[in-house]
Every structure is written in structure tokens, then in C-alpha cells.
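[09:14] KT: can someone run the structure on this one? pasting the chain below
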Amino acid sequence: MNLNRAIIVGRITRNPEVRTTPNGQSVASFGIATNRFWKGADGQKQEKVEFHNIVAWGKLAEICNQYVTKGQLILIEGRIETRTWETPDGNKKNRTEIVAENMQMGPRTQGSMQRESTQENDLQNNLSQSQSSEEEINIEEIPF
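[09:31] RB: done, C-alpha cells below
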């Protein structure tokens, strides 16, 4: 049995770049950084950061384009693929990517949280204005 599965949790390093293939399918590419901490032989805290190339296709690419932003915490589940191509000057290039099949977004960044709280405040203001324009209900008048 063979298994090619990658699950990473990290922060977005660059906003998604979305392109459309000649047959009309959307493809998004972006980066994620993951880090690992440990104590070295001298007892000092050590850190190593890995950078991952992510590719999402179809509807997932469109969702990434709409909701994913740099700095956001995200979980990506997918498979590892390595592409190989030749440059115009004859050099061979490789790129290892995680092809996203599933995604879960973490907490929003500060900017999007402010936008959401402004929208919530607007909604609450509209509700309170519409409620104040209606008649006030007297609890004693309720028959039960």
C-alpha cells in the first residue's frame, strides 16, 4: 500500500496568486511557513523554519483567493508532488509542492477582524434603530 499525504499547520507567507488554465480551471499558489522548536545541547531554545509551496485547484483555489491572507494561520491537507521542467537556457529545475485537497483557516488577521467588528457594529446599530422605532412591549400585557 502506498500513501502520499501531507498535513501542515503554519502561517501564510504570501497572498495567493490565482491564474486560470486554458481550459478555464482556477489554480492558486501561495506559501506557508512552519517552524519547529527544540532545546539544543547547550540548553538554548532553537528554531528551524521550513517554507512550503502550496497549490490549490478549482473551487478551493477560488476560496483561497477570497479568504486567505498573508500572516494567517492555516491547516493544509494534501499530497506532495514534484514538478520538473527545463529553462530556456537548458537547465533542469525542480519544485516540490503540496497540492491542497482540504484546508482549515485559523483566526483572522487583525485587519479582517476590524472589518468584521465594524460590520457587526453596523448591524447592531441598524437593529437597535429598527427596534426603537417599534412599539415597546409591556411584559404585564403578555397573557402567559
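[09:33] KT: thanks! Residues 130-134 have pLDDT under 50 and may be disordered.
[09:34] RB: yep, looked fine to me
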